[in-house]
Task: inverse folding
């Protein structure tokens, strides 16, 4: 319905929805390169570091963004040092937690990972970018033939020893795992998402110590109500309409998640979930069914 007077217009649902979409901010296209900088807690980068990195990026001839991850207490200082960057507070302690957070925020096809304590990031950036067609992951090593490094002798010796331990103990064919500068194709950081065609993977995270899984799960544990909360949070962040979304599960523990969407599907369910699905008139999908037996909104889906 639409009623129009001389001084006022009342919009119908279709026009109001179109106007609402038009008022939403446009999403910037993804850059070719994302730079992820992890700032060590309490340590400011050397004077000129940000400017030197910015100058090097200007010679690459590609679109780029910079994501800086800092300890919460260092965020304000990081924003002053990196006024054009997206500065994020690390969600927890440890370099690995900060790095994963930065990789999740990166949008470019390629991701350059650097530590803020490097003294000369520019030349390494240029050389790595020029060599990007030679592999999916490139490491700018300071301890291989032809490289130069300006660090105390003790640190150089310890780094070489650490790399030797990594190569022999972990059976990794990598000459330098202590390098702070790496260029990698972003898809290599999301192998599961890439394989299944997902845009994002939200899952429980295992605790690692000295590159070994402890068997413990880092909080928060994504299960039951926490899983539903995480999905709602992600939907708000990505402007996703959960009423038009699907969710699949075989366990009654996921009832909160199934209840959060408009199209829940009990998939080869347990007895309890099957009963709940029937009570709520949810479709029940058996993985042995053919596509002709799928619910109407899943007729284009592939059953695995």
Result:
């Amino acid at each position: 319905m639409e009623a129009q007077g001389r001084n006022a217009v009342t919009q119908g649902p279709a026009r109001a929805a179109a106007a609402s979409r038009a008022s939403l901010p446009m999403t910037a296209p993804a850059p070719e390169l994302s730079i992820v900088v992890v700032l060590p807690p309490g340590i400011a980068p050397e004077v000129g570091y940000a400017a030197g990195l910015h100058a090097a990026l200007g010679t690459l001839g590609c679109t780029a963004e910079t994501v800086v991850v800092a300890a919460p207490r260092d965020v304000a200082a990081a924003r002053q040092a990196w006024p054009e960057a997206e500065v994020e507070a690390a969600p927890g302690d440890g370099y690995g937690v900060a790095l994963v957070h930065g990789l999740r925020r990166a949008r470019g096809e390629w991701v350059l990972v650097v530590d803020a304590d490097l003294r000369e990031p520019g030349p390494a950036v240029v050389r790595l970018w020029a060599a990007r067609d030679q592999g999916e992951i490139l490491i700018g090593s300071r301890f291989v033939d032809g490289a130069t490094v300006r660090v105390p002798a003790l640190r150089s010796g310890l780094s070489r020893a650490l790399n030797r331990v990594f190569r022999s103990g972990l059976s990794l064919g990598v000459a330098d795992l202590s390098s702070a500068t790496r260029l990698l194709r972003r898809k290599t950081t999301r192998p599961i998402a890439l394989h299944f065609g997902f845009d994002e993977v939200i899952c429980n995270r295992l605790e690692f110590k000295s590159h070994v899984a402890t068997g413990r799960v880092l909080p928060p544990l994504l299960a039951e109500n926490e899983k539903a909360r995480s999905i709602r949070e992600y939907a708000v962040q990505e402007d996703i309409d959960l009423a038009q979304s699907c969710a699949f599960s075989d366990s009654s523990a996921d009832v909160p998640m199934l209840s959060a969407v408009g199209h829940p599907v009990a998939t080869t369910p347990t007895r309890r979930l099957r009963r709940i699905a029937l009570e709520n008139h949810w479709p029940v999908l058996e993985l042995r069914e053919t596509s002709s037996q799928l619910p109407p909104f899943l007729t284009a889906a592939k059953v695995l």
